[in-house]
Every structure is written in C-alpha cells, then in structure tokens.
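User: Structure please.
Assistant: Input sequence and predicted structure:
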Amino acid sequence: MKHTINKHSWAEPYKMKMVELLKMTTRQQRIKAIKKAGYNTFLLKSEDVYIDLLTDSGTNSMSDRQWGAFMTGDEAYAGSKSYYKLEAAIQKYYGYKYIVPTHQGRAAENILSKILIKKGDIIPGNMYFTTTRLHQELAGGIFADIIIDEAHEPLNDHPFKGNVDLAKLYKLVKEHGASKIPYVSLATNVNLAGGQPVSMANLKELRAYTSQHKIRIIHDMTRVAENAYFIQQREEGYDKKTIKEIVFEICSLTDGATMSAKKDALVNIGGFMATNEWDVFEEARNLVVVYEGLHTYGGLAGRDMEAIAVGIAESLDDNHQRARVGQVEYLGHRMMEYGVPIVKPIGGHGIFVDAKAFLPHLTQDQFPAQTLAAEMYIDSGVRTMERGIVSAGRKANGENYYPQLELVRFTIPRRVYTQAHMDVIAESAANVYDKRKSIKGLKMVYEPKYLRFFQAKFQKM
C-alpha cells in the first residue's frame, strides 16, 4: 500500500525536560471565578486558568541554554558584563548602534516618547498599540493611523495587512509639515490587526519617502522575527533568505527601535530601546537612570540580560519560527473547520476571533469581545483577552473610540503548549459558537483612568 507523505508537516524543534502541573476546574468554579473577576480575564487568578492564552508577553518557556546563561549573570550594579553581552547580541543580529536596556517594552516607549515628541506633534503609525499610543499622548503627541484599509477588514486575505498606506502619510505631511512628525511608528507583525506582517517592499518605499523628508522610522520590533518568517514565506525574492538575514535587513531600514523582549526573545521579562543617533542615546541613558536604573542594567538583573542575549539568537532560527507560527496556523485552521469567524490570513502570534461576526446580536457598547472572552473561560478554562472597544479606550474628550475591529485574541505562548491543547481550544470555541445566540452582553461598572482593559469590571446585562 502506498502512503501519501505530507511534506508540509512540522514538529517542535525541542523536547521537554520539565512540565508545570495545571489545576483542573469545574464549570461552576469557573462561573464563580469570572464573576468575582468582574468578567475581566485579566483579573482572574492564574491558578484558576487551564490553558492561558491571555498574552504571549513573558509567558514563553526558556531553553536549557537560556537557563544556563541565567546562572552566569553578572549582578554588578555598574558595568555588568551581562549588559555588554546583550549589547553585542543586539548589534550583531539587529544592527542598531546604541542600546538602553529597560525592564520591558513600555518603559522604552516612555523614554523614547519623552525624548522625541513635543506637544502637538503628529505620530503616524501602522495601527495603534495600547501602551505605545498612551505614551505618545502623555508626551503631547497625537497618533494618526496610516495602516492600509485592508487591515481593518477581518476577512480580507491581503498577505501584508501591516503595510503602511503611503498616501495617508503623504496627506499628513502635506497637512502638518514634516517638522511636526518626529517619527513614523512602525510595528512589525501588527498586534491589533491580528498579528499581520509588513512587507519588505512596503518598508523600502516608506524608507525612501521618510529619508527624503528627514523623518525617522522608529521600529516596534517586538515580533520582528515572526514578521520575517512571513516575508520569507510570502514575498518574492526572500524564499532563499534566512530569518536572521531578513530581520537584519528590516532593522537596517529603520532609525531606532523599542522592544519588549518578552515576546520574540523568549524571556519572561526585559526590553530595550535602540537608536543609531548618538544624541538620542545620550538623552535616553540619562532618562533611564531616572525611571529604570543605571544605563548598564536599566531595571534588569544581569541574568535577565544574559537570557535575552541567548533568546535573540534562538528566535532567529528558521526551525523555531516554522514551528512557532505553524502551531498558530494549526489552531486557526481547526477553528475555521468549525466555522468560527477569525481574522484572515492567520497571523503570527495568535488567532483573533471576530467578535462582531461571532455575536452579531450585540452592539459594540455591549462589549462583544469582552463577553466572548468570558464565555470561553466559562466553557473550558481557556483564558483569552479582548481587543476591541475596551482596549481602544477613550478620546481626549471622553468619548469612546469605536474600532472597526472587535476581536478576541487567542495568543499562543512560545514553546509552552502542545497540539492537544490546540485541539481543546478549537473545540471549546466551537462549543461557544454553537450557543452564541443565547449569549448576553456586558455593562461596564468600573473603569480606571488609563489602559482600562487591564482592570475594568463588568456585569452581565
């Protein structure tokens, strides 16, 4: 008998040395837990969660090489040799000249915003991210979305939905002048669009235009290796290049970066700000002392910097990225088999379920994505998170932002879960989808001042 071989199968490029035992809960226990948490999955206790897809930030499994490096951390307050290892890794693999470590990505955003943004400045970006936009606004800037229109359409199969719409940027420059735009905020693998990549061709066009008008490109490179994988798989002329080569080329087309190393770099804490400009670096290493710690540790232990340096190298391995994105794609295809409406094409770090299509009987003011995240937890103990009107927050005048995308993010931590876990998740989503017509919305009963999605509380309507 002749057997057909699937040449596209993959397996994890690692084996397990240790496992973490999980607590199993009943439906009644989960109903009690989510009600106590105000129907906000961020307020659940982790011990009450079975499969945790809240975020891929800091939830990765570190390798034996990273744990080995952890033990060699130099905990000197000043001039730690671990800092110089981190600096060397960033310079080697990303190409940026000057490095300021921070405890995580949002700290780098804070410092960068304070340095580059003046009151009334316009900061164009390929879709907002919550902390990035808040830091820009607190510094006096105004965010302007210049992502392509296709990014706001869940069913659009455009292969690079993270691309900048250059016509939108031209219009901003014409209206405000280049001097009012300190930089373009460019995220690779755009989170809130569904983990969607930027093409190299689009980045090169953007670089040519910004160079002409003397506007910086600041790179949110949190998931740059995943973006490089999609360029390798989808963009003409890059199928023979390695992830490492593509990442270096992406970074070479930008002037600086912020990074949460808690994603691509496979660690549980850490980040950095990078720049090719001495003056910006000089100001950043002054400010980091105020907010984080000395410029050679920036709020990190030496062991953290050691682990990041190793994690950067591991993240650029082609086999790692093929398995990492492959697991996400597997979950996405399983959900589609069950008819669950998701953002297409499947992104790099998670599956984004279209809550508007899932719960069409709920208005956006009834928080369909927040509702769906709560229902997923009740059904199976799977923790997801809202990425819609709650995450979008309010405008300066107090009105809600009403984003076109109302999504629930099923974020897959790196090197943590198995294919069997993916099956459980997909089956749970299908169970909730089957009873979708009976699901009622939520009303917000507590709202914090900033980044409300972290701590807001809700009640069933």
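The first helix runs from residue 27 to 36.
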